[in-house]
């Protein structure tokens, strides 16, 4: 977790986990917006998962996940009605961090794959990679 903006990683990828995450997000002090970087697998309950998260997320940054099970950003947007579509998790992460103000929260969620990819991007940049 980062402090400014606050960054939260959560692997919630089903309605039960999303319900729990929603409760935890509502318990946090909210000063700014919540920007969600999300990528999911198409064989998960996307509609049920996003239905919970919609109540705590202000802006969506949707990304496809690689591989045959990965949902496209467009598939996620079908359930959201609004949000931004990106070609990769890294692009969605970069856009969310660029848009986030110090008082905002950036939530990375939807899949172990999404969280792992963002963590790899952060680690690579800390070690001098892109």
Automatic annotation (TrEMBL):
Keyword annotations of the record: Ligase
Coiled-coil regions, chain positions: none
Recorded superkingdom: Bacteria
GO molecular function: dihydrofolate synthase activity; tetrahydrofolylpolyglutamate synthase activity
SUPFAM superfamilies: MurD-like peptide ligases, peptide-binding domain
Enzyme Commission designation: 6.3.2.12, 6.3.2.17
Enzyme class: ligase
Limits of the Mur ligase C-terminal domain: 5-112
This protein's name: Dihydrofolate synthase / Folylpolyglutamate synthase
Keyword DNA-binding: no
């Amino acid at each position: 977790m980062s402090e400014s903006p606050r960054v939260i990683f959560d692997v919630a990828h089903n309605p039960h986990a999303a319900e729990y995450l929603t409760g935890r997000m509502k318990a946090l002090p909210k000063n700014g917006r919540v920007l969600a970087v999300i990528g999911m697998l198409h064989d998960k309950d996307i509609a049920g998962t996003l239905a919970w998260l919609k109540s705590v997320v202000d802006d969506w940054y949707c990304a496809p996940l690689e591989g045959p099970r990965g949902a496209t950003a467009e598939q996620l947007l079908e359930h959201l009605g609004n949000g931004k579509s990106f070609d990769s998790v890294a692009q969605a992460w970069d856009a969310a961090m660029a848009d986030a103000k110090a008082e905002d929260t950036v939530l990375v969620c939807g899949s172990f794959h999404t969280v792992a990819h963002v963590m790899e991007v952060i680690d690579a940049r800390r070690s001098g990679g892109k």
